[in-house]
Amino acid sequence: MIWWNNLLLKTSKRNRRKRNKIASRKPKSVSRNQELTQSPVAIEEEEEGFSLKASTCWVQPLGNFYFSSSPHNSRNSGLGSLQILTDELVLEILGVLGATDLGILSTVSKSFYVLCNHEPLWRNLVLEGLGGGFSFDWSWKSTHVSAYMPNFDVSSMGSLSLKVRDFYSDYLFQSWLCANLEMKPEWLERDNIQRRTGISVNEFVANFEEPNKPVLLEGCLDNWAALGKWERDYLVEVCGDVRFSVGPVEMKLEDFFRYSDQAREERPLYLFDPKFAEKVPILGSDYEVPVYFNEDLFCCLGNERPDYRWIIIGPAGSGSSFHIDPNSTSAWNAVIKGSKKWVLFPPDVVPPGVHPSPDGAEVACPVSIIEWFMNFYDATKTWKKKPIECVCKAGEVIFVPNGWWHLVINLEDSVAITQNFVSRRNLLNVLDFLNKPNASTLVSGTRDRVNLHDKFKNAIEASFPGCIDQLVMQSEEKKAEQKKLSFWESATDSKLSYKAEGMEDHVGDPYAGGMRLGSNLKIQPVCRKESWKSLKRFCDVAYRNELPGSMNKTYGVLRV
Ligand SMILES: O=C(O)CCC(=O)C(=O)O
């Protein structure tokens, strides 16, 4: 249950005080839930560390009902016998209705009025009915009305709407809050990624790609024409009428920009197009792959390679919720306009609030990125295994190593290019991934999921004979080397202060590659009294199984 301390009253009072300040900001019409967020002027609200983009939410969280002097919740009286259903279920049922039925039902009671005007219902109707061929007009409902009834003056819709003050619903309130909450400054504070400027390819490989660690590279886009050219006006001029993939639909770029300017949604639409360079060749020639990522073995597949590059455009608040990149590839993501907040967890740490299915084919996570920040971000503060975080700005590139979970939210209207690639460092991982028994559900970006492994392997053999065998041999040698090199040897070498289980306890570098401590490794107090050297000898013996089983159990658990 959510309780919001007099949000309605406080916001209303503040609206009067802040109107002037807001008037000077870039005008942004309120697009979402116009009936819930009545004011046509965006009002910034600062309350208990939260900044809100919009004005009043007339729906109140359920907690407020229990503190209210009035015993009346119009949500229940207006729903009649349907009141026993959850809001989610009622909305699910309303989701099967068409626009006319929703419109009629909304006149039945205050409750149906609020529910039938829930913006996501109208968003679905627009996207299902019109695909990407709509011109966004203030809200999804008015967009629908203006598309189907062009003579109706939708500008009057806001002023006709009702202010329902005694409707209490956590579901609707949370949805409004997530659409209207600004990122809190404390969510942006942590910046613990390694940054590098002007490093050599060898340094990149040795320090980041080989150990599979993220890095933010500065200054390597300086020669990109896109950086200077890709202003909105330029993009509209060269491809304003080209249709790009936007979620489930294809939209003209200029229509998408029109939508972005007004969007205030929990999950704004996001332009993410893998065929942009084929559609608009000049976009493809305005950038070049940074030198660190030049080796891309999927090139051997020619036109049969899976999708690998995308232009990404979205308004502030849009982004990508937690996922691991496809086909076990690594990626780079270059920001051309705007900025992006990144949160990354290494492959062996599932982020809080995220629940992958056992086969990894599906991931359940919070409805929106803001919801993740509201409900789960704080948990990471006390985790030993803290995420890597940063804000990546225009002109910067982030390297996302294979297998890392990541979430991204645009802090401003943003334009970026991302590419996924396979280098020698990652080839065996990718081949293993493509060869999994459930490849038909796991592999993505191509039609021929099942045969991709064999095609890729053959193409590599043809272009680089012996390459795979050599990599397999090197990997086996490395494993053998790691076994020989006992934990203690590495430990004494690396000025560390481990507390056994947590990666955070590595000095200075929470995700140092190579050796990981098994979670059942216990460094007993008795060990600490020993010198590192004698302890090392002791453990080497234990590791070679030369100690009796019981002692092995205590000291010999080196899962590296
Ligand atoms: O929204 C973004 O820029 C991030 C994209 C991303 O995570 C990906 O392509 O895997």
UniProtKB/TrEMBL annotation:
Cofactor names: Fe(2+)
Boundaries of every F-box domain copy: 79-125
Basic residues composition-biased segments: 18-29
Keywords: Iron, Metal-binding, Nucleus, Oxidoreductase
Gene Ontology CC, one term: nucleus
Primary localization class, coarse: nucleus
Family named by the database record: Belongs to the JARID1 histone demethylase family.
Secretion signal span: none
Protein name per UniProt: F-box protein
InterPro entries linked to this entry: Cupin_8, F-box-like_dom_sf, F-box_dom, JmjC_dom, JMJD6_ArgDemeth/LysHydrox
Molecular function in Gene Ontology: cis-regulatory region sequence-specific DNA binding; metal ion binding; oxidoreductase activity
Organism: Escallonia herrerae
Disordered, as annotated region: 18-37
The keyword Transmembrane helix is assigned to this record: no
Keyword Transport: no
Domain JmjC: 278-438
SUPFAM superfamilies membership: Clavaminate synthase-like (SSF51197), F-box domain (SSF81383)
